């Protein structure tokens, strides 16, 4: 079922850009094309079965919509953090990632990585260089942060790819008494290049949700439930 949903979701960008999808009524397309939103968060999905809520909003100083998620992951903090820092494994679960690798490890709480996202039919793939920082869990705080910021100028442009201007997120992990982890995400993505704003906004309403669905699935695999290697980065003080 999840595999079918992911396949269907992967087709959405192409269908939107080809104006071939009947999934949106005219009023929905009007909203996606225009500002339509205030600067307040608007709930766009409440999946009670998977414990995922998603919001979006349109800030006046940004070209595209920002997104926010709140979910429960049936795994401890260490498994969740390991999935996010296992960059080479992203193509197995992260939204439309076809290539990913660590570029530089600065410390046990800081690194840079490279990622390539598939683009809709007829468009070049998008790549990004991300500066990642971890603020480890402490007893006083009760949570850890994973802070991601795109650094477009970190590497020269790659032939056949469009460099993303932003793939920025702040991810908050709060361990729960029952052994699960609450994840809260706020983010903003600017794919660069020339793509209709309404199409990008439509995709950004789907991509974060399907990404965390993939996360909920992958943390249940042996790779993250019973890892053989030590944590590559520090997530607890």
Automatic annotation (TrEMBL):
The keyword Signal applies. GO terms for molecular function: lipid binding. The keyword Signal applies. It comes from the Bacteria. One of its GO terms (cellular component) is cytoplasm. InterPro entries: START-like_dom_sf, START_lipid-bd_dom, START_lipid_transfer. Residues 41-224 form the START domain. Keywords: Signal. PANTHER family: PHOSPHATIDYLCHOLINE TRANSFER PROTEIN, START DOMAIN-CONTAINING PROTEIN. This is START domain-containing protein.
